[in-house]
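User: Modeling request: complex.
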Amino acid sequence: DAKTTQPTSMDCAEGRAANLPCNHSTISGNEYVYWYRQIHSQGPQYIIHGLKNNETNEMASLIITEDRKSSTLILPHATLRDTAVYYCIVRLYMTTDSWGKLQFGAGTQVVVTP
Amino acid sequence: DAGVIQSPRHEVTEMGQEVTLRCKPISGHDYLFWYRQTMMRGLELLIYFNNNVPIDDSGMPEDRFSAKMPNASFSTLKIQPSEPRDSAVYFCASRAQGTNEKLFFGSGTQLSVL
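Assistant: Request completed. Predicted assembly structure:
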């Protein structure tokens, strides 16, 4: 699986959009980008995933560059409850030999301030 | 749905004692995963099951660790004998067949081995 690079930490003002970057320059054509987050003292929570098209759901939007070497997770209106570690993971989709072997890196600690 | 249920929430034991962690996956989910999280190593996949059968246990640190899934609604992770370096948060996660990598995590078991 391709390696990802994320900033160690970032701050965001409550009510503003939070834009979380992720670099995955070695991504291959059949690898998806997944985002999870982990709020303190809780298990990781799935946010969104995509291949090459931009994706949006009730939690966030995912913008993947045309060359697929980087992506941005957008939390449109950050709240205090969005304070968490955000993980960007690149993963082959539904490989038969290692389903579910998501490898979590260090992630980005996002702090939303009032 | 109650989500993935883990017990106990906290466990404190002495070195050399046997520890058993329990997990109830979401009903209908075919895959079950055990992860361990420490400050030094982050989130590590220990083992995962598909339809109650262990598929990949390459992440299990050593023979002191064992995991079972006697039926679709219950799994255990056992450490015998426990050591201080096993202190960590242990997460159980599950997912349904064909739902990409959308894992649902439990709240974890905080294990402290003194």
